[in-house]
Amino acid sequence: MSLPVLLWRLGAAAAAPVLPLLLRRRAARGKEVAARLSERFGEGAARPPGRLLWLHAASVGETASVLPVLEALAARAPQLSVLLTTGTVTAARLLEQRLPPALRGRVLHRFAPLDVPAWVGRFLAGWRPDAAAFVESELWPNLVLAARARGIPLALVNARLSARSARRWARAPGLARTVLGSFALVLAQSEADAARLAALGAPAPRCLGNLKDAAPPLPAAPEAMAALRAAVGARPVLLAASTHPGEEALAIAAHRLLAPRLPGLLTVLVPRHPERGAEVAAAAAGLAVARRAAGAMPGPEVAVYVADTLGELGLFYRLAGVAFVGGSLVPHGGQNPLEPARLGCPVLVGPHCWNFAEPVARLLGAGGALRIEGEDPAGALAEAAFTVLSDPARARAMAAAAAAAAATEAGLPARVAEALLALLGPDAAGGTIPDGRARALPSAPERIADGPGRERDSAP
What we know:
The chain is of the alpha/beta class. The chain has two domains: 3-215 and 410-452, 3-Deoxy-D-manno-octulosonic-acid transferase, N-terminal domain (Rossmann fold, 3-Layer(aba) Sandwich), CATH 3.40.50; 222-405, Rossmann fold, CATH 3.40.50. It is 40% helix and 15% strand. The protein is built from 18 helices and 16 strands. It has helices at 3-15, 19-28, 60-76, 89-98, 117-127, 141-149, 163-170, 173-180, 191-199, 222-232, 247-258, 277-282, 313-319, 338-342, 357-366, 377-389, 392-405, 412-424; strands spanning 52-56, 81-86, 107-111, 131-135, 154-159, 185-188, 206-207, 237-243, 266-271, 289-291, 304-306, 322-325, 347-349, 369-371, 447-451, 454-457. A seven-stranded parallel sheet has the order 3-2-1-4-5-6-7, with helices on both faces. It has a seven-stranded parallel sheet with strand order 10-11-9-8-12-13-14, sandwiched between helices. β15 and β16 form a beta hairpin.
């Protein structure tokens, strides 16, 4: 066991006594489900009979991206069950809302155990998955290495690793090699991601594409859509979507600048975390504000509408004349700009888009998006929004360009599903292998380099 791995294990074990208190505090703030905290300790296993694939998706974006993969798996392996773990309450709610009814008996949800050795061991002993796939960049060393030690084939799908994250991992090269070298299958979002992962020790990563490029358009309930359109009428609508702290204040400042130039302007704020709704509404003091979570509608008297609900972003992308995609005016890395683009909504983004650098570049190059830059972000946001909202022809051209640039890659979820079934083995579709039988890792290294000229067993 390398020194970085040992230090991580010891640190996680040392933190274990205080983690229950932290979880209870998170539950009090709505960031955990109090009745399900035991799942964070690896408890609550209810393994179904037959073959079981474990998928881990950290949050909302990762969960949404694998929904088409779940459908593709179900179509190809009717007897396969899937355990889907998430790390956030919002992801669990999204899964509850958007999982197709036909899959509800075959896809089980649990909150992922925290990365404490004993809790991870309890989780794996209870569920005994036949293979496991981690989505994007959710790499917890104890969880990954304990799964590998049990002979569970591991995949990293839709993998991404920004240049900044790669630099951080490079500071602990032994840990990076040990963790990334545990994966038998690595499917990267882009060739750049594949190169960074390979440099850190991932075995033969390949790029199939980005699952977020293949996602279907966000849904919108027809009755809710009709009610919103009736409430808003012909007013111009500026949407600030998936915003992070600090961005709502900029959007509100932009609204104040725009309102005299665009009579009737409605600004809709959709915070990335809906529990911030009251805080977001308070930032618009002096304006007529309404909150969707309180049951209010954006009538003609409302200037700022806070859509602090979950799973309704598809409504507001359809309603908006232009959408600013959050996480990009603050150094977060941006949220998914393809969501509005698929719905033919012109897109505005800030300078901090490293999480979605390729799709942002594609949208900008196609003319479906504008970048907000300069020392006065509120003023720049106002000017960019005015450019679109005041020129219907420009708005139509941007909408068409955005939709074309975001055209879905329809076959990608099926290709990812087939790769995962191959990891399970040739009988995956039939489900004939006994539950949870340990198996050798196909094509994974039998041993992991621990430094120049040295090798150690891969088990932690």
